[in-house]
Amino acid sequence: MQTNRFSRGMSDYQLKMAFIMPTMILLILMNIFPLLWSLYLSFHRYKASMPTAPKFIGGRNYARLLSDPEIWGYFRTTAYFVILAVTAQFLIGFGLALLLNRQFRTKGFVTTLLLLPMMLSPVVVGIFWKFILASDNSGLLNYFLSPILKSDIGWTTDPKIAMLAVVIVDTWMWSPFMMLIALAGLSAVPKYLYEAADVDRASVWFKFRWITLPLVSPLLLIALLFRTMDAFKMFDIVYVLTNEGGPGTVTETVSMNLYKLAFRNFNTGKACAMAYILLIIIVALSNIYVKYLNRVKGEA
Amino acid sequence: MKYLCTVTVFVLMVTMVWAPLPADAQKSLTIVWAEWDPANYLQELSKDFTAETGIAVDVVQIPWGNFQDKVFTAFVGKSDLYDIVIGDSQWLGRNSVGGHYIDMTDWINENIDVDSIYGPAMTAFAEYPKGSGKYWALPAEVDAAGYVYRKDLFEDPKEMKNFQAKYGYPLAPPKTYSQLRDIAEFFTRPEQNLYGIATWYSKQYDGITMGFQQVMWSFGASYGDPKNFKVKGHVNSKDAVKALEFYTDLLQFAPPDAPNYYWQETLSAYISGKVAMGMNYFAFFPGIVNPETNPLSHDKSGFFVAPAGPKGHYISIGGQGMSISAYSKNEDIAKQYMKWFMQKPVQEKWAKLGGFTPHKEVLQSDTFKNATPFNEAFAASFPYLRDFWAVPEYAELLEVCQTNWSEAISKIKSAKDVLNAIARKHEEIFEDAGYYD
Predict the structure, then answer these.
(1) Counting one residue from A and one from B, how many pairs have CB atoms under 8 Å apart?
(2) Mutation choice for A interface testing from B260, B264, B393, B417 by most A CBs within 10 A
(3) What is the torsional sign of CA B282, B288, B293, B299?
(4) In the Cβ-directed half-sphere of B77, how many Cα atoms lie within 13 Å?
(5) Which of A67, A86, A230, B279 has the fewest C-beta atoms under 10 angstroms from its C-beta?
(6) What is the pTM (predicted TM-score) of this model?
(7) Bridge-partner residues for A55, per DSSP?
């Protein structure tokens, strides 16, 4: 008597595939296909708002972007922002974590309070900081500072200060993230190491330099990696706070410009090429971080 | 029994979902427009259409800053979200060539009395290419940039005397940009939190471009030659440099946050009593004469036509045309609505509600001119109206202007440098689009 192939049920492999397939299909449709399609479009002259079909132009979109001094200007602005914001967030976040890494009565409450900014939507943050940083005396900060400085500060209108305003807002929002990760790292440092150092009458700096920092640094690097990647994509706060990267192009980041290229001008082919340039830079930066992280882990 | 109950409930639910609704309740029309008072007037006006036809009309409002992005994204997705789009005049080229607006030429010629519509409005808001006789829209709201001023300050005997002594001519609403500068300078008193002028300098959407272009034209410059699309020598001419230097210089008589001023900020600055004069589109002025929104100067405000320059008199055109989305499933209802909207009695009510009618007779009637304190200045602005490029590439051209002019007024680059950059970029855009082939 012959048994039917189906009546025996599915093999383990088939069962595995049956479970994985829906996710795989979704992943291919939602992630892989758009990625490949945008790569294809980046080599074409194509406007999504026009009925004409994509026309192959080779690497001309890339060549044009890479030879455009204005595009390099946006990259410089982004790099400047990333360095300032991530450094400030690192210093403030780690500093706060060191302060909170001890027992006191309202520790839970204070920690929750400090974490609030990062739980808000960046657009909401941008809007209320816009009121705080208004460049005339209707702005909360100028209201307090004007009598001391005898003039209003053009937080979002003065080209020399506007970037600082964006950095302040981003730092206010994301320093708690650094603090949270650093605090997790600090709480994991074994107490006996400090006790042993105390027995040897080690200084506070010595304990920080040779115990705290090496043990916390892998986690700090992960936090730095996340923040760098995120800061590189800065869009929402700039869009709201400085009216799409103003004054002029002083705060116009690559992502802001990419948005305009893709969704205002509908220069789809060029926008795809720019998105790929941005992707390559972020991947390269992440690799540098990861390599450094592995080295630090090895040392630790 | 339990089975029977379950089946009954299921059948009832299905019946409720699929039961045919009354024929009229099924019909509805979605109109998309920017978020401002005229959209509220249109919603109010459309109640009459619903009463006549039973067709519900929903006027969806999108904030100005995102208006274009949101509508264009819907078009790219071929969305049937909107039936009628009330879009800027500059959108015509892009949305007609892109296939997002339906061609209404035949329908308009057969169903609408084109002669009853103010000619320049038909050209600006409905026709593309200009002079081709091809229509993609009907004018819905005709608008122009204009000025509001504080009559209590301008008519104060002490101020008038001081102004006459300083400038040698009487204080009155300015007729030229040179007078505008003098008056702005005269009223700039930061110690009293009073400034001379609030005008558009913002980098948002079309802010600084709409504010500056009328100065540029009036100083003798232009965007380029519309016949051959050559830009160099026009937008970066000596006159354009002078105009941009003038507009940048004017900023010193505006409040400190003026580089961020768009329509809303300009309106707020005037309403809060911070400025003596404010530039805005006339459609935004109802808020100024409304005691609820402007308790300080609603009855002390006067209006004047945008001044002339040394080489001409031009004013930025505002307003929008009513087009039908190519992706609408309600084309017939949309046409029915547009035909209804263009009738004279409806246009009269539209004007009465506060809309700026494109209907020639209604527009020129004394009833319209006397309906609000600013309608007369609005009607007087008409002969001077001009528009930005209305070509399919307008968004790219606009973006270049916005960025560069913002750099000039922030003194990041000189007027000459930014105008040269605009000329170069605009020609690049035209070249890429094949205008020089």
Answers:
(1) 90
(2) B260
(3) negative
(4) 11
(5) A67
(6) 0.86
(7) A45
SS3 A55: strand
pLDDT by residue (tens digit) across B337-385?
999 999 999 999 999 998 999 999 998 888 888 889 999 999 899 889 9
**Domains recognised in chain A with CATH numbers:** 12-41 (no CATH), 60-299 (1.10.3720.10)
Nearest Cβ partner for A136 among B72, B257, B412: B257
B212 vs chain A: nearest CA distance in angstroms? 15
- Cβ of B409 and A247 within 8 Å? yes
CA–CA dist B198, B430 (Å, integer): 34
Tell which wins on pLDDT, A293 or B52. B52
Question: Comparing C-alpha atoms, which of B85, B157, B110 is closest to residue B321?
Answer: B85
- What Cα–Cα distance (Å) separates residue A99 from each residue in A103, A197, A217, A218? 10, 20, 17, 20
Residue B172's SS3 state is coil
Domain boundaries, chain B: 29-143+318-386, 144-316+390-432
Q: Answer whether A257 touches B (CB < 8 Å).
A: no
| Residue B117 three-state SS | strand
Query: Residue B198's beta-bridge partner residues?
Result: B278
- How far is the alpha carbon of A29 from chain B, nearest alpha carbon, in Å? 17
Residue B405 corresponds to which amino acid?
A: W
The dihedrals phi and psi of A94, each to the nearest 5 degrees, come to -70, -40
Residues of B with CB below 8 A from A49's CB? 72, 75-76, 94, 98, 100
What is the C-alpha to C-alpha distance for residues A232 and B65, in angstroms, rounded to an integer?
A: 24
Superfamily of segment(s) B29-143+318-386: Periplasmic binding protein-like II (3.40.190.10)
Whether the complex's predicted ipTM surpasses the cut of 0.85: no
Q: Is B338 helix (H, G, I), strand (E, B) or coil?
A: helix
> What is the CATH number assigned to the segment(s) B144-316+390-432?
3.40.190.10
Tens digit of pLDDT at every position of chain A (300 positions)? 455 555 567 888 989 999 999 999 999 999 999 999 999 999 999 998 888 899 999 999 999 999 998 899 999 999 999 999 999 999 999 999 999 998 898 999 999 999 999 999 999 999 999 999 988 777 899 888 888 888 888 999 999 999 999 999 999 999 999 999 999 999 999 999 999 999 999 999 999 999 999 999 999 999 999 999 999 999 999 999 998 898 999 999 999 999 999 988 899 999 999 999 999 998 998 899 888 888 877 765
Which of A51, A135, A244 comes nearest B257 by C-beta?
A135
Q: Which residues are CB-neighbours of B37 under 8 A, at least 6 positions away?
A: B283, B284, B286, B287, B354
Residue A269 touches chain B, beta carbons under 8 Å:
no
Provide, as residue numbers in chain A, all residues whose Cβ is less than 8 Å from the Cβ of B262: 243
Strands (E), chain A: 44-45, 55-56
Helix-strand-coil split of chain B, %, nearest 5: 50, 15, 30
Provide, as residue numbers in chain A, all residues whose Cβ is less than 8 Å from the Cβ of B91.
Answer: none
The nearest alpha carbon in chain B to A133 belongs to: B257
Same topology, domains B29-143+318-386 and B144-316+390-432? Answer is yes
Nearest to B97 among A50, A139, A247 (CB): A50
CA–CA distances in Å: residue A38 to residues A33, A44, A48, B77: 8, 10, 12, 16
Q: Does A68 touch chain B (CB under 8 A)?
A: no
| Cβ B204 vs Cβ B264: under 8 Å | no
Q: Compute CA distances B330 → A46, A53, A77, B322, whole Å.
A: 30, 28, 47, 15
Contact B410 A159 (CB under 8 A): yes
